[in-house]
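Submission sheet (multi-component)
Chains listed below:
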Amino acid sequence: MTVSSASDLQSFVLLRLGERRFAISASQIAELVAPSRVFRFPHRTPKMEGVILRRGRIVPVCDVSEALLGKRLSSRRFYLITARQYGTQREWVAMPVSGECELINAEVTAAGESDAPHVAGWLSHDGDVIEVLNLDTLTPGPQEMLAEVVTPSGPEARP
Amino acid sequence: MRLATPSKTSPAKTEQIILFRVSGQLFAVSSASVQEVRSADSMSGAATEISAHGIRKVRHVVRRGDRSIFIVNGAMHFGLHPASAPLLFVLRKTRTALLIDGIEKMATMTRLQALPLSFCHEERSWYRGLTALDQTVIPVVRPDGFLSSEELALLDAALSPVEKSSGEGLDVAGSEQ
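Outcome: structure written.
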């Protein structure tokens, strides 16, 4: 039996999407807020729903449930506002979640080569093995533009 | 007693914008970018049909002096449902006239926020950014984002020989409002 030292433990926020729980490093979380009006406008980026106004800032809303669960959330209770790194720039991205979130300390196991790109690692909590999410691959960003150059497909506009 | 000199506060940089609708969706454009507002009917006599492969949003072109101005259907450009578009914005320093539903109002924009980097497809060329006005977020369009240089080249190639004499210059000469 191995005993984890305090230095091995990292802080994560557990979030619920439908019936499943996922984890995100606590260092990437800004806040959890009640749903507010989503302002939609035409665009062509998959997963992006629109933007919300939060403390005078315009925050994009990205629904990752379809990528993670294969379906959209039937109910959303909160927006988890995460900090997404784009090169040297850090921006907020709001993710709809379907339940309350929980802050935990856990030891993380690094992702393996066979894991999906959105998996940054694994942790064990309450008898569950939980995926730690890699926001940089889960939410759209400049890497999608690079991919688009390789496979130019024109998705429909999402007003 | 000497009073402290009041600190000078520089006035916030503002910009006049026109709020307009395309297929019911609200957009904004800098009023300085709009050279003319015309009814689509008033242009119909001068417009000739054009068909460039892969550019369905442009069906008509009008001659202005020695230039050709392409009439862009705003709804098709943004991928919105087609709607009647009785008005035209002739956009300054472009070769674009934009078909719109109508003008909502004029307003003053005090802050333009860059489009969040999560939006990473064509919309990055469509919009200068987003602005919050009366608790609503409105995309501010980029006047030169309606036709790319590749599209302009295709449209120029599709012009009839008479219209091909048009120059490649930017500004549309003379306002006829």
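Remark: The mean pLDDT of chain A is 87.
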